[in-house]
Amino acid sequence: MLRNRVQQLERQLRKFILQHFDIELEELAAERPPRIEFGDLAFPFPFQLAKILKKPPRKIADEVAEKFEPPKGIRHVEAAGGGYLNVFFDRSLFFRDLYQELQKDAPFSSSEDPSKIIVEHTNINPN
After folding, report:
1. Residue 98 pLDDT > 80
2. What angle do CA 29, 43, 84 make, to 5 degrees?
3. In angstroms, rounded to a whole number, what is the distance separating the alpha carbons of residues 72 and 63?
4. For residue 108, pLDDT beyond 70
5. Using CA atoms, how far apart are residues 10 and 16, in angstroms rounded to an integer?
6. What pTM did the predictor assign?
7. How high is the pLDDT of residue 11?
8. Contact 29/92 with Cβ under 8 angstroms?
């Protein structure tokens, strides 16, 4: 599910880059930002484009953040640092989808109260 959203985001970013900069990127690297407040994913492709376009990476990231329409499941994108494009997931949508997915495959669901799930774990010291 999350992998599908990331792949869709990468496809749309590559399409956007091709349409707006006339550059086809075969591979689009994604990184995990060092801190959660920087987003859920960071794309460093503006640094690649800067060499080709002879523009500062930050200016490219700003342009993409301003004009790119993120797909469903992405709350927003923003330019950060020297030229990263940071992506923030719509977490409420992600967890709702995850919950629905778990409900389909939940062998432990009881018919008494399907909204209630009990999770047990072992204790390292049962005494």
Report:
1. no
2. 145
3. 20
4. no
5. 10
6. 0.74
7. 92
8. no
CA distance 77 to 6: 13
Report yes or no: 61 and 46 within 8 Å, Cβ to Cβ.
yes
pLDDT value at 125 more than 60: yes
Query: Tokens in use for 92?
Result: 């409420």
Q: How many Cα atoms within 13 Å fall on the side-chain side of residue 113? A: 4
CA distance 96 to 55: 41
For 46, the token pair is 């503006």
CA dihedral of 30, 93, 60, 48, whole degrees rounded to 10: 10
Give the Cα separation of 37 and 45 in Å (integer): 20
* HSE value, Cβ hemisphere, 13 Å, CA-based, for 25: 23
Give the other-Cβ count within 10 Å of 110's Cβ.
Answer: 10
Whether 85 and 79 have beta carbons less than 8 Å apart is answered as yes
Q: What is the mean pLDDT of the chain?
A: 86
